[in-house]
Amino acid sequence: MKKLFTGMLLLAASTLAAAQSEKEEKLPPPAATEDWSFKPPLVTPGETCAQPPSDAIILYSGQTDLAKWEHPDGSAVRWKPDGDALVIVPRATDIRTKQKFGNMQLHVEWRTPDPSEDKDFNRGNSGVLIMGLYELQIYESWNYNTKIYYNGQAGSVYKQHTPLVNAARKPQTWQTYDVVFEAPVFRADKTVEKPAYMTVFHNNVLILNHVELKGPMVYQGYPKYKYHDAKLPLQLQEHGSRVSFRNIWIREL
């Protein structure tokens, strides 16, 4: 009788745990993580772009040789080199570096296409995925001509942090991101010892000041950390828009 009672208790506990797990996995609608509460004021940036320092790892500088990059499936890059730029080919999927990085200083120059090419909510839509997980959003956000939630506009840590100001330039104009990224640190038991942090200058204007990241980017639901390697590839997102990139470099910290 005691064994039967114990078995019933174990079965009840297992059923309750399964029900709780199913409840926890039910995600909120995507709009639940859209932040419209703070509209960053407009700031007019300067015109100069930074040059790479002597100890930088040059990832793209206008060369047609894309040996440092690949698609996530390991195939050769299908994006289109155009002069000193590299242009996204829609539906060709993201690209990532073959080299892996952790703590870094990152410089990326990017340019959104003619807005008439894209549909609403996809104007110049791309992103810089640091470690392939933590997204710094690219979007056509000049003068708020394109409507999107503020934690999804250019310069946001996607759906986590709204930029302090909107320093975006006009479409079809080169823009810069200068990023200092501190990778998360995990304990031996794979729990988080220290979260990731990010500081970002957009067109030489400080827009994110050592913000704490809540976990990898998610579109639906709330971010949370899962254990991953100390170094992972840098990834550029293909989201159907012909965004261009040039002058990409990293300094390992």
Automatic annotation (TrEMBL):
Q: What is this protein called?
A: DUF1080 domain-containing protein
Q: Which Gene3D superfamilies match?
A: Exo-inulinase, domain 1
Domain named 3-keto-alpha-glucoside-1,2-lyase/3-keto-2-hydroxy-glucal hydratase: residues: 62-251
GO molecular function, a single term: hydrolase activity
Q: What is an example of a Pfam family matching this protein?
A: 3keto-disac_hyd
Record flagged with keyword Translocase: no
Q: Where is the signal peptide?
A: 1-19
Species this protein is from: Dyadobacter sp. 676
Q: Which of UniProt's keywords are assigned here?
A: Signal
